[in-house]
Design goal:
The protein has helices at 4-31, 37-64, 98-117, 126-149, 157-161, 172-190, 206-225, 233-261, 266-280, 289-306, 309-313, 321-339, 359-389, 396-401, 403-408, 415-428. The chain is globular and about 75 Å long. It has one domain (4-400): Ammonium transporter fold, CATH 1.10.3430.10. The protein is 65% helix and 0% strand. It starts with a helix and ends in a 15-residue tail after the last helix. The chain has 16 helices and no strands. By secondary structure, the chain is mainly α.
């Protein structure tokens, strides 16, 4: 029997998560330089196109279908290839069609790949990115998502070690640490942008950044709330915790900015919000609302410092994917070892503060380290091979002129037309004597 309430909630949650990737495009596009904003946004939209098709073809199957023997610990099987075998199937416990779950998880795969793109802004070939995206999904995202949410080694770690079950409610490891570690590997392969550390590379459109952050924040209620797979008290807790953690993270980030620089910025507010959303993702249904406030505040403060590490260690993480997603994901996953509560609707062990002992913290740390190590190494290899075969980085001349014009024959802003209009206006305002009157002076 179909549970219409659960099915409707999952359908809505899938739509909310879908909205996050266009939101990410605005967030990253606003943070980019004006001459490359379209390229940056197209990397997110390109991920929607490529990964959606790949997910239908093999992704859902490799993530969730039963595997084969010992290989099941690392990757799923082929029973769900093309999704044909699950079109009429219904989840017995939740009462929702399995196809709804496939659509919901498709959106997770899409945004995980898109998240990586922000690290390599202003310097990657678009074609190389469209090749990297499906290869990375096949070799990294699908296996890691299987480890965590399928029947992989992370999900079964407690069977082999006697430790508590790893908690990752909505993607601290599979999405955020995964994307952040991949971003770090990519920036090492591609190298730093021309002028990194010496030229100003400020965001060109802060209203875009705030709009993107707002869309991400809105969509995240589906990201976390939908991961309950039911319209129930667990989804309600995830929704409240998502809001509480995000609000606390923005406050903490702004406080750090005020103490360090004497001012609070719009970019800082938006970045703090994303840091809080990232950190609460793995913990949304396993901490109390006050625990969520603590997770958010810690992540906001830590990530506010972490984004400056790129200057200290000389890696060019253009839009702070490492500093926010990898670091925020680590904070959220490890915070569960302290703040997880057994007095919440969802299942899971208690953390240290609630008398659960050190076991959960150890389990969480193993999952974090395992995902980071695998993702970094495999991503580095993928990027290196692509770079050797077709070249991953654009030519210096293209980088200087801007990727929008050189790669896409377009511009987000009609600079040439504006210049021509300005020249015409100045010319038309020149009196017979030759004295020029500013077209903005009202003369």
């Amino acid at each position: 029997m179909i549970d219409t309430g659960n099915t409707a909630w999952l359908l809505m949650s899938a739509a909310l998560v879908m909205l996050m990737t266009p939101g990410l495009a605005f967030f990253y596009g606003g943070m980019s330089r004006a001459k490359s904003v379209l390229n940056m946004m197209l990397m997110s939209f390109g991920s929607i196109a490529v990964i959606s098709v790949l997910w239908v073809a093999v992704g859902h199957s490799l993530t969730y279908a039963p595997g084969y023997g010992p290989l099941e610990l690392f990757i799923g099987g082929f029973d769900y290839v093309g999704l044909s075998n699950i079109i009429t199937e219904v989840d017995e416990e939740g009462g929702f069609p399995l196809l709804v779950d496939a659509g919901f998880q498709m959106m997770f795969a899409v945004i995980t790949v898109a998240l990586i793109s922000g690290a390599i802004a202003d310097r990657a070939k678009f074609g190389a990115w469209l090749l990297f995206a499906p290869v990375w999904a096949l070799l990294v995202y699908f296996p890691v998502a299987h480890w965590v949410w399928g029947d992989g080694w992370v999900a079964r770690l407690h069977e082999f070690t006697g430790l508590p079950e790893v908690i990752d409610f909505a993607g601290g490891t599979a999405v955020h640490i995964n994307a952040g570690a991949a971003a770090l590997a990519l920036v090492i392969v591609l190298g730093r942008r021309k002028g990194f550390g010496s030229e100003s590379m400020r965001p060109h459109n802060l209203p875009f950044v705030l709009l993107g952050a707002a869309l991400l924040w809105f969509g995240w209620f589906g990201f976390n709330g939908g991961s309950a797979y039911a319209a129930n008290e667990e989804a309600a807790l995830a929704l409240v915790n998502t809001q509480a953690a995000t609000a606390a993270a923005t406050a903490a980030w702004m406080l750090v900015e005020r103490l360090r620089y004497g001012k609070v910025s719009a970019l800082g507010f938006a970045s703090g919000a994303i840091a809080g959303l990232v950190a609460i993702t793995p913990a949304a249904a396993n901490v109390t609302p006050m625990g969520a406030v603590a997770v958010g505040a810690i992540s906001g403060a830590v990530c506010a410092y972490a984004i400056s590490w790129k200057f200290k260690f000389k890696y060019d993480d253009a839009l702070d994917v490492v500093g926010i997603h990898m670091v925020g994901g680590i904070v959220g996953c490890l915070a569960l070892g302290f703040l997880a509560s057994s007095a919440v609707p969802g299942e899971g062990a208690a953390g240290l503060i609630y008398g659960g002992g050190v076991g959960l913290l150890v389990a969480q740390a193993i999952s974090v380290i395992g995902v980071m190590a695998y993702t970094f190494v495999v991503t580095w290899v993928i990027a290196k091979i692509i770079d050797l075969v077709i070249g991953f980085r654009i030519a210096e001349e293209v980088e200087t002129n801007g990727l929008d014009h050189e790669l896409h024959a377009e511009s987000a802003y009609a600079f040439d037309e504006l210049d021509e209009l300005e020249e015409e206006a100045v010319s038309s305002s020149t009196p017979p004597g030759g004295e020029t009157v500013s077209p903005r002076s009202g003369g």
